[in-house]
Design goal:
With 349 residues, the protein is of the alpha+beta class. 38% of the residues lie in helices and 26% in strands. It has two domains: 77 residues; 265 residues, Deoxyribonuclease I, Chain A (4-Layer Sandwich). It has a six-stranded mixed beta sheet. Strands 5-6-7-8-12-9 form a six-stranded mixed beta sheet. Strands 10-11 form a two-stranded antiparallel ribbon.
């Protein structure tokens, strides 16, 4: 009977997670919690459903089937599958694209000691989109000039800083083997987040590229420490809910600005970067509208975690593209040079 109660509770949590796709946290914050944990909930539900099927309470296993059907769309956003189900679109031209949250550009170390820079030089994709790029005004740390020189194999660059003061510069960067034109910025009322926009002039086409670093939930370890008393647990829950609600509201506005700007593009669009949101979320729904997800399109049966902390992984970094393009060979190299993994794919046009 205890297993059945857990089973029903899990189903309610899954219903809440599905609701998070359609209702922003600013309207109803609790479903956003379950949206963050969707993949763990669905795996646990499938395991419990199988156990029930093997017991005398097998009649309860039909509820697992119902939940799997109800969650088909969120599962489709979470687990890569299209390469298994659909033939690839054959397009004549291609280039490799990397997006990477560098966590302060390898902690602002000099180029030879900077593992992020050295990794990019080894991988050498055609276009590199970086977030959380920090360079120093002091020669004691990595300077903008040194970063340019270290990555001089890329003749075309676009640096777009949100923070620019006497001590440091912080923002996004694009390094490209193809010319970059039409550079502009979507600026937000946010401490450190921007969207950097530029057009990549390819041999036979031009694409509009959006490099993004969207609002973080800014959750700390103490936010998920419920303590030992009812009062401490209630306080932690309320504080974390407030953070999730505020961050979600900001991200939604940012996503809407990106979506609206992309609709005006005369060229096919690439939307890449650290979106700080999982696929089961209202923000992802906005960003993915009218776009294809390169991870879903070109990987096979994976979850695609791009950010792992204390053994818990989530997918919050994305490469989205217009339907007229296609993607293949999506990869998430598990290198520990930042708190995020880079994501790399081949874009066909």
């Amino acid at each position: 009977m205890i297993l059945v109660i857990i089973h029903i509770a899990l189903c309610l949590c899954l219903l809440a997670s599905v609701l998070s796709v359609f209702v922003p946290a600013s309207v109803l914050p609790v479903p956003a919690w379950f949206g963050l944990a969707f993949e763990w909930l669905i795996i646990t539900e499938a395991v419990i459903g199988f156990i029930l099927l093997c017991t005398r309470r097998r009649r309860w296993s039909w509820l697992t089937l119902a939940m799997l059907l109800l969650c088909a769309a969120p599962i489709g956003y979470t687990v890569s599958h299209e390469a298994l189900c659909f033939p690839k679109k054959v397009l004549p031209n291609s280039f490799t694209l990397m997006s990477y949250n560098t966590h302060l550009m390898g902690n602002v170390r000099k180029p030879k000691q900077n593992r992020v820079i050295q990794y990019i030089l080894r991988a050498q994709p055609d276009v590199v989109c970086l977030q959380e790029v920090e360079v120093s005004k002091s020669n004691d740390n990595l300077t903008l000039h040194e970063l340019r020189e270290a990555l001089s194999v890329y003749p075309y660059t676009y640096f777009d800083f949100k923070i620019y003061n006497k001590r440091r510069q912080y923002g996004n960067a694009v390094f490209s083997k193809y010319p970059l034109i039409g550079k502009h910025t979507l600026r937000y009322e946010s401490r450190g987040n921007i969207t950097s926009v530029c057009d990549i002039v390819l041999p036979t086409d031009t694409l509009r590229l959006y490099t993004n670093h969207l609002e973080s939930n800014r959750l700390q370890r103490e936010d998920i420490d419920l303590g030992t008393t009812t009062e401490s647990a209630q306080s932690a829950f309320q504080g974390t809910s407030a953070k999730l609600e505020k961050a979600s509201e900001i991200r939604i506005r940012q996503a809407e600005a990106i979506h609206e700007d992309a609709l005006l593009s005369p060229y096919p669009v690439l939307i890449v970067g650290d979106m700080n949101t999982t696929p089961v979320s209202y923000t992802y729904r906005i960003l993915q509208k009218g776009m294809r997800d390169a991870f879903l399109e070109s990987s096979n049966g994976q979850f695609g975690h791009t950010f792992v902390k204390r053994g818990i992984g989530v997918r919050i970094d994305y490469i989205l593209h217009s339907p007229s393009l296609s993607a293949s060979d999506f990869d998430i190299p598990h290198v520990d040079y930042s708190d995020h993994y880079p994501i790399v794919t081949t874009i066909h046009y």
